[in-house]
Design brief:
This protein is of the alpha+beta class. It has one domain. The protein contains three helices and three strands; from the N terminus they run βββααα.
């Protein structure tokens, strides 16, 4: 699995996507700096990483936050 950080001229906030091999399109996980985005990130990430219950628990328990996306993906890929 990989992730991509992207920003656009009209949107100065970087956007984070994840995509597993075999998926036809990337999933938006969060927009950095967005108001109220931590709770939204936990919800989306828990659903996206739902096949890894231990990782979901760390996200829901706030051990992992959206700024930890690289570590989350490394944990998922192990």
């Amino acid at each position: 699995m990989g992730h991509q950080k992207q920003s656009y001229k009209g949107n100065p906030l970087p956007i984070r996507y994840c995509m597993r091999p075999g998926e036809s399109e990337a999933t938006l996980l969060f927009i950095e700096g967005g108001v109220g985005m931590e709770a939204q990130f936990r919800k989306v990430a828990a659903e996206y990483f739902g096949d890894y219950p231990e990782l979901v628990k760390k996200i829901e328990d706030k051990e992992y936050k959206r700024e930890d996306i690289v570590e989350i993906i490394e944990d998922y890929n192990e």
